[in-house]
Design a protein that fits this description.
Beta-galactosidase, Chain A, domain 5; globular; alpha+beta; binds (2R,3S,4R,5S)-2-(hydroxymethyl)piperidine-3,4,5-triol; single chain; about 750 residues
Length: about 750
Amino acid sequence: MLHFNRPAVLSIVLALASQGVCAEIINLATPSSSLVLDATEGEALKILYYGSPLTQGDLDNLQQSPDLHHNAYPVYGINPQAEAALSVTHADGNRTTDVEVTGVSRSQSDGAETTTVSTRDKVYPLYVDICYRVRPGYDVIETWAEIRNMEKGPVTLNRFMSGYLPIRYGNVWMSSLYGSWANETQLTEEPLPHGVRMIKNKDGLRNSHTAHAEVMFSLDGKPMENSGRVIGAALCYPGNYKLFVDTDDTDFHHFFAGINEENSEYHLKKGETFTTPELALTYSAEGLSGASRNFHRWGRDNRLHAGDKERKILLNSWEGVYFDINEEGMYGMMEDIAGMGGELFVMDDGWFGVKYPRDVDNSSLGDWTVDTRKLPNGIDGLLAAARRNGISFGIWIEPEMTNTVSELYEKHPEYIIKAAGRPVVKGRGGTQLVLDMANPKVQDLVFEVVDTLMTKYPDIDYIKWDANAPIMEHGSQYLTADNQSHMYIDYHKGFVKTLDRIRAAHPDVTIQACASGGGRANWGVLPWFDEFWTSDNNDALQRIYMQWGTSYFFPAIAMASHISAAPNHQTFRRIPAKFRADVAMSGRLGLEMQPRDMNDEDRAVCARAITDYKQIRPIVQLGDLYRLQSPFDKKGVASLMYVTPEKDDAVFFWWKTETFMNQQLPRIPMAGLDADKRYRVTELNRIDNEPLPCEGKVYSGSYLMANGLEMPLTHKVDYHKNSDYSSRVLRLTEMTND
Ligand code: DGJ
């Protein structure tokens, strides 16, 4: 059998001498997938296949099955009843586009190979390059389009998707995420309906509270975690998006993904090129978890900022003190987190504003000067306290925003997003406004917020970058009247440009993407951010669901997950510290509370969780995820595990999601281990008076994967410690010599 692992791209050039044209079959091969294109000069680029790797014979025969041939990047106008990835109004008003392949080129960068299929309209000088990037060793293919206008005048892009994929009709199910503030990343699994199923965002700024720009397609019926063929797609864009599947009367589901073009038609000047965001595609024959692992590995190694660097265990001040920032309080929190073994303290909102102090949420954004009433020794004092405690220090900012009550707005009312001739629309606190990132002066300002902080205080280790408003009106004071439709796209172009400058100047500071909780969990921002805030809801039970959904597309290293107080500040549920810690430990562990409000028992549980997490941190943050039992299946239990790539160390999480007397729970077979290896079991974060029967015992990988281990329904603890919650964290370490 022929595998196309190296080189990544094999192509067969067939010279059709009689016609004088070149037909090039391009096989974009990754270790476990192939995407095959037919780039015949003079014809539209065709996609022949996306799935498991092909033999040479299979590849040859694919070319002879015209039923499988779809245009790889369908354009609008000829056959206008079909959905298209690109729709253009030409300089002369013609709304039809019809492109043909003119050539194929390849380029290498950072070990990745990009194959560019150049096409051009048969009549107009409009050029569309369709690009595919393959990174050796990764099962993800990134695709995007570059549209270049060489016509006499501007052309209007009415639709400009990143990519298209035909999926053979059958028992195909789509898994996608929906939600809301404090209830992000809930999972929907549904068979693809006839007609159009659309997922979209129009917030302008934050794009992952509600729907998400990522989906998975299970090709073999109802989605399974560890078996079945799955295609995953993730749009790498921080702004408005549209993903849709059109199941028409053909034998295919037609999947499109890209920037949401509504209100955003783009005028492309003569000589200008529009580059769409990348769409990352993956194929796995190992179920949903397999597709997630593909995204995680690819993302950690190629897209997530500092994706190979373990993250620190932190305490964030927000739910502990909210706006009540003062020096003594901050020093106390630093002592407390250091005393529990934590490594970083982050001061949240409320530390700034001189003329207008930020005491509540209705003022001061933009006035990034320390309020010395609250912090007489300023940031230097805080950094010194962090040093004394042997920890690092981080700080909250919200640089894309201002308030009507701020010195910034008094000086620069022209910097905000605002529709001409109307009163400004205000957000949070009745005063919040969004700065117009399309404006280069605003880009400079936002760069300077970070640059000034980092230049004055180079020891700042972490920035929590928040964004607590959508774009509330369609109006840029910077863009000309005829280019108002560019506002949403130019906002993000400006945002990304600014992030590039920030990272060039400050590559080492850890930056969290927060946006009213989980509003910025997307692959569009992660090249510049080290992690995202998953949700403003830290209730451990609800987090099991939210983190489950998040893990479909994002690795644990990027998923901030904090132990918060009981009762919880959002749901008011009282969950024991052990359960709260066991859930938080399955992501990037932190704390979100006032440690001084904890009793000694809870404090000891948290300190123990921190110590234990340090042991498993590389497995959780850099290992491979195997989801085992979904909370969405409502079986009363949820479970997942992380395994090192060498399969010599693993950590198993088990959380009971509901409690009834004499309830029957399934035993959970493990996954991802080496069947031939033997593993010793150690319970972490243990609160029971007696060890589990499996404690210290050695089991083969094959036994654990066939049977799993029995988990008691309750903890064996002193009577007053009994509760309706139960959870376990087990470490499985390979035994080598007995
Ligand atoms: C929203 C964030 O999600 C919270 O964590 C907190 O930082 C507040 N903003 C502060 O205003």
